[in-house]
Amino acid sequence: MHLFRNRHSQQKLALQRRTFLKAAGLGISAPLALRMSQLAIAEPGGANNRFMVVYVPHGLPNEHYEVGDNCDLAQAGVGILSPLEPYKKYLTVPRGVTNNYSTNHAAIRSTLTGNGKSNSIDFAIASELGVTAHALAVRPNEYCGSWGACTIAEDGHLLKHGGWAGPVMNPADAVADLFSGLSASSSPADSVLQDAQFRAAALQLTEGEVSSMKAALAGLTAEENKLQLHLESLQAIRSNIENPSQMVSCDSRPSLPLVDAAAGVDELAEENFGTLLKGHLQAAAQALRCGSARVVALQLLHTNANQMMNFPGGPGIAGSHHADLSHATTASRREDFAKAQKWIYQTLADEVLSVLDVPDPSGAPGETVLDNTTILVCSEIADGAEHNSEHLITPPRPQFAFQGSEIGTYLPWTIIGRGGGYFQGGISPYVKQEDHRNVLAAVAESMGVSLTNWGGAALTPTAALRG
């Protein structure tokens, strides 16, 4: 047995040395040649899945959200989800989800914790993966300058990381943690290249050099290894992407102009809402893209926030998000609320989805970052005017009902991304009165984390989400 291990180790060392010499003989730089030799003896590994939860309070008017059985994003009124049309293949819209608490104030703190007592879903997933749960927020409370000084009721809390967690309010303050380990000026020549860095550096090779390395590798070993997969991925990138610069290098912090624009602004000033939101989204998207952050939670507003929605760069809607829009009962004002919520989805598409719909530095050939990401957009409430957090098949007001359908109102929860192949995408299953904790269990399962007993209940991941 020992003799076999020694012989195997010697064979791997010989393969590593010969791969290095082959690469060096082609004129490839020493750091890149060294990384190639290491990948030649490395076992293939799966991509790094990412998770992001985006909390948007106050629900929405479902007559402008309902997508039907065929996931038609533009069929309902304003079409709140229509900005996600370019990413429809990554979209899962579970219709009929209900909170395990039927009233919205109790539902607030159970939205991501399941019962207000367990750690929130972001922290539960991050803990199992052994990574950091990054908590960000845009004006999480409009009456105090720091989370610790707030005097809000406990039911206003959302994220629990051991105790109720205070999110970072300015994206400029979050950058150091989101990009921990990446220097502002590190060079690939300064250290042995990592997998994502390898691809970025190797993209500079000519097609002939890549082909020569593939041929050299085939002559050295018949076993599939990481180097073979990386070289195949490079060729797929070259043939399928017109702009190879979209491939993120992840060897240094990217340029973040929207984050820079938010630095030093007043986090509680209503006119800065758009600036702060876009800064947070840009920082989170770039960190998820290169894998320096794998779990991010972003809270938009406090659950009773009266943020005016005519801030610079916003949807241009007169009225406050909570009292004026979410509580509206007239058709015109409910349409205004729908437009405000649609703007949020458009901003998410512009600043996050477009950034993640690129080749995954850690994935297999042809995979995008969105293929290996789960983004959950959720709220604590279904219809703000009704103050209901459960799925109501027959809403009290007839103008909220849908002709020819038993579906009335339900939690507007949207999943974007395929979660490493867990979610099929492009579907909108009707999961009649499904406990929202089962949806969270499915989200966790897409990240390789089992939540069979969490949030005060035994859970079964919602099977319909997988298609």
Q: Mind explaining what this structure looks like?
A:
The protein folds into 2 domains: 2-41 and 204-246, no CATH class; 50-183 and 259-466, Alkaline Phosphatase, subunit A. A hairpin with a 2-residue loop joins strand 11 (453-454) and strand 12 (457-458). A 6-stranded mixed sheet has the order 2-9-8-1-7-4. It has a two-stranded parallel sheet with strand order 3-10. Strands 5-6 form a two-stranded antiparallel ribbon. The longest helix is centred in the last third of the chain and has 26 residues, at 331-356. The protein has helices spanning 2-25, 30-40, 104-110, 121-129, 171-178, 195-202, 207-220, 226-240, 257-262, 273-290, 321-326, 331-356, 436-446; strands at 50-55, 91-92, 95-98, 133-138, 160-161, 163-164, 295-300, 373-378, 414-416, 430-435, 453-454, 457-458. By secondary structure, the chain is an alpha/beta fold.
